[in-house]
């Protein structure tokens, strides 16, 4: 499969989204687990799977696969999108910097989880708060708690990252590597 596919499963009280890069995967939401697979052939008729390409972001060059970005390149007035990957499973995430502190969250608004805080052009930051572009929920830049808006009191889903030697690394044990688009 050449292009990733976003899959969202909605249950009565939960919505879970994953990005699938490979030929299959699964999504868990509430008590439900949805598994699926894709079969495809390349233009020359050969099976497209089983032939992993080099990582497009150069992670096969000996660099730590969990490195996300240089600290200085993480915006304070917006967000940087990356993907936390574990095998076939990918979670779209955002990174934000306040001074020398960085925080990362799943790129999903607690009010409507299918809505990304960063739709691709960077999330809105007003004052020091992240703002959802859809209904204006505001989130603290450190713990991701919503201070105002339709999901006040809820929090963004935190992803663990840390800074080492001027670079930001994904350190969340749920994932094995980070990718930038
Ligand atoms: S979807 Fe984010 S505030 Fe409604």
From TrEMBL:
Stretch list, region Disordered: 1-65
GO molecular function: 2 iron, 2 sulfur cluster binding; metal ion binding
Domain Rieske: residue ranges: 90-153
Compositional bias per record (Acidic residues), positions renumbered to this chain: 50-63
CDD domains found in the cross-reference section: Rieske
Keywords: 2Fe-2S, Iron, Iron-sulfur, Metal-binding
Entry-linked Pfam families: Rieske
PANTHER family in the cross-refs: PTHR40261, RIESKE DOMAIN-CONTAINING PROTEIN
Protein name: Rieske 2Fe-2S domain-containing protein
């Amino acid at each position: 499969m050449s292009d990733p596919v976003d899959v969202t499963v909605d249950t009565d009280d939960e919505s879970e989204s994953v990005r699938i890069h490979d030929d299959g995967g699964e999504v868990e939401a509430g008590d439900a687990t949805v598994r699926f697979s894709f079969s495809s052939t390349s233009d020359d008729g050969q099976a497209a799977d089983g032939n992993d390409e080099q990582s497009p972001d150069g992670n096969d060059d000996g660099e730590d696969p969990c490195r996300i970005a240089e600290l200085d390149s993480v915006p304070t007035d917006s967000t940087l999108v990356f993907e936390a990957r574990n095998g076939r499973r990918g979670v779209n995430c955002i990174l934000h910097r306040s001074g020398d502190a960085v925080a990362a969250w799943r790129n999903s608004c607690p009010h409507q989880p299918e809505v990304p805080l960063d739709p691709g052009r960077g999330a809105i930051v007003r004052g020091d708060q992240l703002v959802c572009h859809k209904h204006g929920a505001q989130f603290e830049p450190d713990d991701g708690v919503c201070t105002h808006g339709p999901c006040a009191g809820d929090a963004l889903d935190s992803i663990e990252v840390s800074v080492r030697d001027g670079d930001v690394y994904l350190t969340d044990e749920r994932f094995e590597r980070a990718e930038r688009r």
